[in-house]
């Protein structure tokens, strides 16, 4: 699914998922076998392979929701 990464006014990383009309704050980031894994405030985990460093925001990328 396509997601948009951006920073909010307080500098926290936010994820917006247009198909779900969902915007959540990233509460943790880890490195996994499927790439960078973002845990959102609602409990969802998104795997983002090949995320470029340093992160340039805002940007739209492909992510996979982990079960």
TrEMBL record:
<dbReference type="GO" id="GO:0009399">
    <property type="term" value="P:nitrogen fixation"/>
</dbReference>
<dbReference type="Pfam" id="PF06988">
    <property type="entry name" value="NifT"/>
</dbReference>
<protein>
    <submittedName>
        <fullName>Nitrogen fixation protein NifT</fullName>
    </submittedName>
</protein>
<dbReference type="InterPro" id="IPR009727">
    <property type="entry name" value="NifT"/>
</dbReference>
<dbReference type="InterPro" id="IPR024044">
    <property type="entry name" value="NifT/FixU_barrel-like_dom_sf"/>
</dbReference>
């Amino acid at each position: 699914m396509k997601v948009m990464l951006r920073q909010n006014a307080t500098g926290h990383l936010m994820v917006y998922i247009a198909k779900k009309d969902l915007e959540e704050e990233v509460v943790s980031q880890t490195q996994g076998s499927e790439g960078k894994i973002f845990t959102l405030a609602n409990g969802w985990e998104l795997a983002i392979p090949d995320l470029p460093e340093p992160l340039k925001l805002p940007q739209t990328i492909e992510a996979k929701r982990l079960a």
